[in-house]
Amino acid sequence: MKFWFIAGSQFLYGDETLAQVEQDAKKIVEGLNLPWPVEYKITAKNATEITNIVKQANHDDECAGIITFCHTFSPSKMWINGLCLLQKPWLHFHTQFNKSIPNEEIDMDYMNLHQSAHGDREHGFIGARMRMQRKIIAGYWKDEETQRRIADWQRTAIGALFSKNLKIVRFGDNMREVAVTEGDKVEAQIKLGWQVNTFAVGDLVEEMNAVTDAQIDALVEEYRTLYDFDEKDIEEIRYQAREEIAIETILVREGASAFSNTFQDLHGMRQLPGLATQHLMYKGYGYGGEGDWKTAGMTAIIKAMYPNGSTSFMEDYTYDFENGLILGSHMLEVCPSVAQNKPKIEVHPLGIGGKEPPARLVFEGKAGDAICISLIDMGGRMRLIGQNVICVKPTQTMPNLPVARVMWKPMPNLITGSECWIIAGGAHHTVLSYDISVETLRDFARIMGIEFVNIDANTTPAALEKELMLGEVIWK
Ligand code: MN
Predict the structure, then answer these.
(1) Which CATH architecture describes the domain 2-164?
(2) Gap from CA of 292 to ligand 1 centroid (Å)
(3) Cα–Cα 20 to 30 A to 33, which of 243, 247, 321, 432?
């Protein structure tokens, strides 16, 4: 994927200035050190050029977004027709070729060339006037912080495009009677692009039966390089490998990047996929338990934004009121990308679901700043909630709890943070990500046109209630 750089100008200043604008724009592009390449495309000088470049950007599958910058003044009425057509994420990069004002060199020619301070304000007006969803980043192009923010925006744009093409496989339906895992799949497709469809568990079982011993041997060897385990558990581990290969076969066949299943619909399967699901998440697939396709989708998107990051499906389980902490885990399915130590594969009974004891990865989550993310369906609209948390080394060893576990302090603290989460309607399932920032998550919601609610160190229940009340008017 690439990002297109479009410099805005006009014919007023003559060929010499336009040549200089082009040269400077190319230098800026070369000077950007970002996760995805930026390509200088054009110094746009009239409505036809702008409309044409926007049309090309829309239809180029490798173009992930456009970056615009007005080195000189570029009258915005020229931009209206083009921007009306824009379908790709847009970054208005408000920078300037020179960092400071040269005392001797500055004259009227210099002023005519280096006028992004007002050229970009004209450009900003039309974005505001047209009510366009765009990201604005101001800053000198060589500055590290400026480039870091552009890199984050790139991830947002990549995530948005990934979302628009995301397919989610549901093995079985949602867990019976649960509300928050339900949702309007048509609305999700309109807003987020997700194609969420069901596939029969019986077909998965058929696929499992077709898995060969050689395939299982190869996957178990991969497990051996990443995880510790006892040879006595090998049969259960091999069964999980069989499940993993079958699930992935269907995901690949369907072009899907996320899946959900439920322990209430495993007809014909001996174990709930535990290790299988955990290792699939490790490879980058999104997952949501109990049919939670919304959390599965968000997990996949954040993993696509941060390919080698630390992001997992998560569930709030139990509180430590004494230390103001939440113990997060799941029956089995926590991604080893958040592990502090080398995970160990263990086999234990589940207690619910009535299946054989499944093999699963057991580990402690690592310490660090993270965000818990929940996408909920408010009826008529989607709400994305992100709460800042600080993950800590678990305060206890919990030797009799054979699951992966993470402990964190929610912002602003356990009591207020939990109240705010519940006021906002956040689910008990989340995506826990050590990678994404609030700004990036907010940018993602803006591109997708959905509501975003952040709970951070400064959030109070009263202010949040007011924000949500206003949201009822805005997002109706
Ligand atoms: Mn759950």
Answers:
(1) 3-Layer(aba) Sandwich (3.40)
(2) 8
(3) 432
Dist. CA 363 → ligand 1 center (Å): 18
| Cα 453 to middle of ligand 1, angstroms | 22
**Ligand 1 center–CA 302 separation, angstroms:** 19
Half-sphere exposure of 122 (CA within 13 A, CB side): 19
The ranges assigned to domains in the chain are: 2-164, 167-474
CA distance 216 to 241: 6
Centroid of ligand 1 to alpha carbon of 325 (angstroms): 19
Closest CA to 433 of 301, 274, 249: 301
Cβ count near 59 (within 10 Å): 10
Instruction: Give the span between the Cα atoms of 1 and 331, in whole angstroms.
Output: 37
3-state helix, strand, coil in the chain (%, to 5): 40, 25, 35
> 164 C-alpha to center of ligand 1: Å?
26
Q: What is the pLDDT along the chain (476 residues), one digit of tens a residue?
A: 999 999 999 999 899 999 999 999 999 999 999 999 999 999 999 999 999 999 999 999 999 999 999 999 999 999 999 999 999 999 999 999 999 999 999 999 999 899 999 999 999 999 999 999 999 999 999 999 999 999 999 999 999 999 999 999 999 999 999 999 999 999 999 999 999 999 999 999 999 999 999 999 999 999 999 999 999 999 999 999 999 999 999 999 999 999 999 999 999 999 999 999 999 999 999 999 999 999 999 999 999 999 999 999 999 999 999 999 999 999 999 999 999 999 999 999 998 888 999 999 999 999 999 999 999 999 999 999 999 999 999 989 999 999 999 999 999 999 999 999 999 999 999 999 999 999 999 999 999 999 999 999 999 999 999 999 999 999 97
Fold of 167-474: L-fucose Isomerase; Chain A, domain 3 (3.20.14)
Question: What's the 19 CA to ligand 1 centre distance in angstroms?
Answer: 59
